[in-house]
Amino acid sequence: MPNKYTRGRTDHDIALVRLHRPVTFTDYVVPLCLPERAFSENTLASIRFSRVSGWGQLLDRGATALELMVIEVPRLMTQDCLEHAKHSANTPRITENMFCAGYMDGTKDACKGDSGGPHATHYHGTWYLTGVVSWGEGCAAIGHIGVYTRVSQYIDWLVKYMDSKLRVGISRVSLL
Hints:
This is Vitamin K-dependent protein C. About 10% of the residues lie in helices and about 25% in strands.
């Protein structure tokens, strides 16, 4: 976890896990690429829709998914995200390390148990890790959207701690 992370807070909500054995890729287990920071911020961030997946709850206080759930969510402009948070009581502060995505009408959202899952953006045939499911107020609640850790803020940190064998070309590093 980043040195700046504080337990119980929402900022710097990202971790890197070392696995005991390599992942076996299949039709259902596929890698995501870690983008270069500038590419993520200048190109990928401008793509409106991305995918979020997880095995979390299907509804707020509901049952947990029995199969991997995948939704497409629109990314909100930073100003809209900040404006939304300003009008919600007891909402954690949105920082430069976060972004918002989702539907204000409550149709789709990540939920409890999805935290730590990927926000993946598709660009010219390749999927890139652009966010990590972090927090939200309820699940698919009208007037509330999901908040994600902005992976581009942590590229240097991730590369520093990743196994050197994976650093083939930073824009093509596989992460789950």
